[in-house]
Amino acid sequence: MLRPHPSVPVLFLSDLSPQALLLRQAPLAATSVRPLASPLRIGGLTLPNSVVLAPMAGVTDLPLREMSVRLGAGMAVAEMLTSDASLVDSRKSMQRRRHSTNEGIRSIQIVGSEPQQLAEAARRNVDEGADIIDINMGCPAKKVCRKAAGSALLADERQVGAILDAVVAAVNVPVTLKIRTGVSRDRRNGVAIANIAERAGIQMLAVHGRTRADRFLGAAEYDTIAAIVDAVGIPVLANGDITDVEKAHHVMQATGAAGVMIGRAAQGNPWLPGHIAQSGVGSEAIKPNLAERFALMRGHVAALHDFYGEFLGTRIARKHTGWFFDTLHREMPHTACPWKSRFNALGDHEAQQALLREAELKLLTLKPCDRSGGKAA
Ligand SMILES: Cc1cc2nc3c(=O)[nH]c(=O)nc-3n(C[C@H](O)[C@H](O)[C@H](O)COP(=O)(O)O)c2cc1C
To answer: Which of 53, 94, 225, 335 is the one with CA 20 to 30 A from 232?
Structure first.
């Protein structure tokens, strides 16, 4: 049986409650792509499968990482942490630095522009329990790029080399790198960056199929990721716009990557990376049904309150529950019941749990044709 980490019990989605399955995937045609259920080696570590939850600031906090790994993600990368030592004890950094043995292999992402500062940050995080140090050269956020960090570094290949050399030399755990395909569509230098990374001793690359200039506009492009896979011997994760099993398999086929990284599609759907990872196991992968998803959401909201306390927990739960209701609304368009706005108006944990129970009851008692928005069940 695949396990994300010796200490983390995997909850197979198919174990949840087979009697009430909402959706089933058809068996996938056999292909020559690397199965996503295969373990993935990163230096001396082995992930139980090749589907990773992407780092997302403000999203992949400890409660979400624990949940997605428990639901079968191969690994969940933590939110980026500034390398600026003067901010280490800020409330935000303190919260982002909290880890647990329930999150499997701990990949901690650092961001910055100065090689020695990043090396120091890497050491600090390894001392605090990081199993992997990931370096962010993919974030286009103005706040990050103003300091020539994140994806802004892609324009300065010498500085990229200096940072990677310094960080790899500083720690004795695998160092990985997250990049975009290049600076802009006129300067897709992802292959050059990947070569620099491999020479520096980086053990895995995650590549978002957009350039820095693209930000999040347009569709992700996979040809440059395929060229990077061809150019290096280290594992490459393909990232960008992967929303379901079919898209994950398409991207694996198009790129020859070692695995995939899932970001926004997992917001409100923490089971998705595990679902995609299981898609090659046996004949079918099973999504959690409505009751199971509500149970997961209630558990997630409780975990957010435990982690952040009542004030912040109430607010952060609104964000995740909003994504959850958005997904349900996409799947059942006629249920435009104001669940999301009602949830957002609530001021405490108890009321939030009560509303989730009310919404579940209401949606579960809809007839099948109602659930599919009037279309045949
Ligand atoms: C809200 C949000 C926060 C993000 N924060 C980070 C981050 O901290 N570090 C990072 O490398 N990328 C970050 N990203 C980029 C994602 O990791 C990912 O590369 C991007 O969303 C594309 O993948 P997707 O199409 O599957 O979402 C963030 C993206 C979003 C939407």
So the answer is: 53
